[in-house]
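Last lecture ended with a question: if I hand you only a sequence, what can you say about the shape of the protein? Today we answer it with a concrete record. The protein is GntR family transcriptional regulator. Below, first the input exactly as provided, then the predicted structure, then a couple of comments.
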Amino acid sequence: MADKIKLSSVLNSEQLLPHLARGVIEERVRSAILEGRLPPGTAIRQQELATLYGVSRMPVREALRQLEAQSLLNVELHKGAVVAPLIGEDAADAYDLRVLLESEALRQSIPFLTAQDIAKARSCIQQLENETRHAEIARLNRELHMLLYSKAANQKLLRLIDAELMQEERFLRFHLSSMGLGKLTQDDHTALVDAASAKRVNDAIAVLEHHLNSAAVTIRRYLDSQRPY
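The predicted structure:
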């Protein structure tokens, strides 16, 4: 059973410096979840992690709180933190929210994007074409989107989007697994960057909305298929 998995069988034991412990533990556990090495339902015990990394429970607790905020962990009665299901009931709603937030960020940002920004975005797409590791796909996807929004004036808007993109890492692994794919097509990303490069704001927003709405449709179909009738 997933909740009986020993963390030491998945995560390498390592003595961490106290000031680095929270960030390292958060990243190690996140990667293990996204890569499927810690499946849904796995109990993530604070003391086990603290012993594994030779630290107190405080940085472990902080790391787990961050992962809970990213919807990667749930807190359950009598079990504590457990790895969340691949996809949650509110996942489609999250994409509806992203359409609103990211369309506005793209509208603000495109007029100020430089040739260097566009070149970096195209580099992300090129790397995504050849990448099959879920965690790395998620990182590159987040980097690509944030590059395109980076010149938006509203910094709070960018922080909200970044938080939503962190949660999308979960969806990417679900999507690839459910579709039997090793990677996602980059057609939408390419069209998005082309429109941004040409300063065609309305075209870019249309591509982005199609891109995000397609993901929401995939999620809703999956959730509907899991409901008893």
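Comments.
1. The longest helix spans residues 201-226.
2. Residues 42 and 107 are 41 Å apart (CA to CA).
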